[in-house]
């Protein structure tokens, strides 16, 4: 019995619904002082997934490729509920998504910068807490 539960918990973990930043694109040039759309997509929702929320942050990189910014996420543009939905036309992976408009300060340092999307959700019947950070590197010009 215990084994079965452990197996189910593992299956739930394997099915964890990861988020992906589907816009802007990797390496895209983004002018400081501009307003851009950050699109966060997720695979199909399972009934056993309860979203807690996400954040959208941007950090200037000291190195290229960027150092790990997990403990230094930078400017917070958004922190709150995550409610991905299907839209027509769908985002490229065909997955539900949510758009977030962010205004990048004109004083934001030029050069490589990384968008991070910390994501928290409750999974499975337990449920258990699953967290991750999706990221994408862009170029502030
Ligand atoms: C982006 O995420 C990957 C995978 O979690 C991680 O290895 C990498 O350090 C992150 N990049 C930055 C710039 O934080
Ligand atoms: C989300 O943003 C993209 C542009 O990045 C746009 O094409 C799409 O229509 C937007 N979706 C919604 C529902 O506003």
The helix-and-strand class reads mainly beta
End-to-end separation: 58 Å
Q: Quick one: biggest sheet?
A: 5 strands, mixed
CATH class designation: Mainly Beta
From N to C, what is the helix and strand string?
HEEEEEEEE
Number of discrete helical segments: 1
The CATH H-level superfamily is Immunoglobulins
Overall pLDDT, averaged? 88
Structure description:
The chain starts with a helix and ends with a strand. It has one helix at 2-14; strands spanning 19-23, 29-30, 35-42, 49-60, 75-80, 97-103, 111-123, 128-140. A five-stranded mixed beta sheet has the order 2-8-7-4-5, with no helix packed on it. β7 (111-123) and β8 (128-140) form a beta hairpin. The chain has one domain (2-140): Immunoglobulin-like. By secondary structure, the protein is mainly beta. The longest helix has 13 residues, at 2-14. It contains one helix and eight strands; from the N terminus they run αββββββββ. It is 9% helix and 47% strand. Mean pLDDT is 88; it is low at 1-14. It binds 2-acetamido-2-deoxy-beta-D-glucopyranose (NAG) (2 copies). One 2-acetamido-2-deoxy-beta-D-glucopyranose (NAG) binds next to loops.
Key attributes of the depicted protein:
141 residues; mainly beta; Immunoglobulin-like; 5-stranded mixed sheet; 3-stranded antiparallel sheet; 1 helix; 8 strands; disordered N terminus; binds 2-acetamido-2-deoxy-beta-D-glucopyranose; signal
């Amino acid at each position: 019995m215990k084994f079965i539960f452990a197996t189910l918990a593992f299956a739930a973990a394997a099915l964890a619904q990861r988020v992906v930043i589907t816009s802007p694109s990797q390496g895209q040039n983004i002018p400081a002082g501009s307003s851009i759309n950050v699109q966060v997509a997720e695979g199909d929702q399972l009934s056993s997934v309860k979203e807690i929320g996400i954040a959208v942050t941007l950090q200037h990189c000291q190195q290229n490729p960027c150092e790990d910014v997990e403990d230094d996420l930078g400017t917070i543009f958004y922190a709150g509920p995550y409610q991905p939905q299907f839209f027509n036309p769908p985002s490229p992976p065909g997955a539900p998504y949510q758009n977030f408009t962010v205004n990048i300060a004109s004083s934001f340092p030029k050069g490589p910068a990384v968008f991070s999307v910390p994501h928290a959700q409750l999974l499975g019947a337990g449920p258990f807490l699953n967290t991750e950070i999706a990221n994408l590197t862009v170029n502030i010009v």
